[in-house]
Each structure stands twice: as structure tokens, then as C-alpha cells.
Please model this.
Amino acid sequence: MDNAATTKITENVLKAMLPYLRENYGNASAIYSLGQKSRAAIENSRIKIAENLKVKPSEIYFTSSGSESDNWVIKETLNPREKNHIISSKIEHPAILNSLKSVERFGNETSLISVDEEGFVNLDELSEKIKDNTKLISIMFANNEIGTIEPISEISKIAREKNILFHTDAVQAMGNVKFNLKDIDVDMLSISGHKLGAPKGIGILYIKEGVEISPFINGGEQERGMRASTENIASIVGIAKAIEDAYANMDENINYTSDLRDYTIEKLLNIDGIIFNGPIDNRLPGNINITLKDTKPQTMVQYLDMYDICVSSGSACAAGSINPSHVLRAIGRSEEDSLSTLRLSINHNNTKEECDYVVEKISEGMKKFKNR
Ligand SMILES: Cc1ncc(COP(=O)(O)O)c(C=O)c1O
Model:
């Protein structure tokens, strides 16, 4: 029940990867045939991903993670000789928010636009915040905590009119929202493998042809000199397979998961003391975010864990910290309520029986731990 934190590698992905972990272990820069098999695997993967996203293979860059892709965009699109202005939102992932803090140290300025009570960014505020030196707009495609799917096409139009670069963090959207980059016009887009059945430690940054961005890791000529380091071939093959499968089964998976989500939400809302967070429409198919009135979410997470149920208190990346969720604060929840949230993120591998079991255990836990 915590697929937004990470997913299990699928059998298809594992099968595609294994030859590159065993016999085909060559360095893709080597000119002998073992190396060239690796080179071919990388370039075929790039072609496969580009076909699904409807972009050119040369616009796909492999990175180590969603966080790396986000850091690359924020840190390397700015002009070091100018004071740049960047617009983002209050509900971004820490990979964006902390990168913004990092570039602020060098004299750049950032504006974080607010969201409404369902987590949708305020488009009027976005337009109003644009200045002559606004270089980049970075707004996430879908929120990892409350599942809000942002109006990416509208944001893109605003950016286009003003000739400003537009990046979107699509780490949670990939595989969960049907899109391609012919229909929506973005300059850069971040993806992470482990959210969609590929391994941890592999990501993608789509960079539209013509966008000026500096290399992120200096070194050899890998990724056309933009991101050095010997390629992680097995994981590149893995993420390509995961994306291929996600696109092949997209409608079926989205329909199944969102029906299961709505069924589970309805049952959860019958429990006394549960408040629902996030939007009703335009929500990630697997996202359920609830506030447990007068119950510590950590206690509930531990209780559910005794029954082998994995859920997240707030977002996984913020777990371990006891700060209230910045996303829930941004949608107007009180500090106390923002500390008491639980995120369930189901996917097409979950069943109705599992959801019934989870609802039953949450209901039990609410009675046991109220005010404790
Ligand atoms: C919206 C969003 N962006 C970025 C990331 C970071 O991705 P990665 O774990 O691949 O670094 C996450 C991970 O939770 C996320 O949900």
C-alpha cells in the first residue's frame, strides 16, 4: 500500500535486465563486441522510451534518479552571470525545494506559488509572479502526497507566451497519467524508475532539443557529454521495459486502480475521525491521503506493520522527520492535522480483499489508539 514510495521490480523488467547483469556486462564505451552489445542496449532503450513519450531519442538522458533529474534542471539552466528568477510551487518534492534553496545562495531568486485546498496551483498567481528575469518555471505534474494532477498544459501555455523554460517533475505521474510530449509542450521532464516497476537508482531527464542547459556530471562523453559516468546498462534496459509496459497497459491499470481507490476511500470515510485530503477529480489513480483525528500516524503505521501492511505517514521522503507535511500546510490544514496524515498508494497489483483488510485494521487502530 506504499507504491508511491517505491514499487517491486516486475518480472518482465527483471527478465529484460538479467542478461546485462550476467553475461553482457561490457562497458558501452568499449569498441569490442561485448561493449557494443551494451551500447546497443542503451540506444534501443532510448528509442523505446522516446517512442512512448513521442519525442526524439536524442532528447532522452539517463540519470541516477528523479532527484538527480530535478537537481540538474534547477542547478544547470540558470545563467551564472545573471541573477535569475525561478517560479515553482509550495507543494513540490524536496528534490526541487532544496535545489531551489541551493541556487538562492548564489543570488538567484525564487517564488513559490500557492495552491488551493485541493492542491491545484494558482494560475493567476503564476502569471502575476512572472518577471523580466524569470528564467524557469518548475511545477510538478502530480503531487506525491495528496495526488493532485496539475494543469500542466495550461502552465505550459503561460510559460510559452512569456518565452520561459518549463520543467515538470513527472516522477509520480509516469505510468499513472496518460500523456505524451507531443500533446503537452514541456522543455524538461523528470522520471524515476523505481516508481514504476524498474529498480532504484535509475532516472530520466527529457530535455527538449534546443534548450540551453549545462552538463550535470563532468567527466567522460557518456550521455553526449552531458552526464558523465559509465552507464548503468541493466537499469537503463529496466526503465525502458517498465515504461513500455506502463504505456501498453495504461488504460486498464488506471481504470482498475482508480476504481479500487474510490472503493477504499468510501469505506475509510465511514470510520469516525477520518478526514479526506486532496482532490476528488484529477487525482492520481492510486493515491489516498487521510488525516486521522487525535491519532498519531506513527503509531498507526507501526500497528499496520504488525499485520504486514505498509503505508506511509506523510510522504516517504519526509518520513523520519516530525515536521508537519508542507503539502498539507499548503492546502490549509492545521499544523496538528498536517502531522496526523496517512498516505496509502495502491496500484494495479493490489486487490479488493487487501483494501478491505487495510480498512478493517485502520478502523481497529483508530479505536485502540485514539488520543494516545
Ligand atoms: C514527486 C517526486 N519527485 C522526485 C522524487 C525523487 O525520486 P527518486 O527517489 O528517484 O530520487 C520523488 C520520490 O518520492 C517524488 O515523489
Q: What stands out?
A: The two ends are 24 Å apart (CA to CA). The pocket of pyridoxal-5'-phosphate is lined by residues 65-67, 70, 93, 95, 140, 144, 169, 171-172, 192, 203, 316-317 (CB under 6 Å). The first strand starts at residue 60 and ends at 63. The chain has a mean pLDDT of 95.
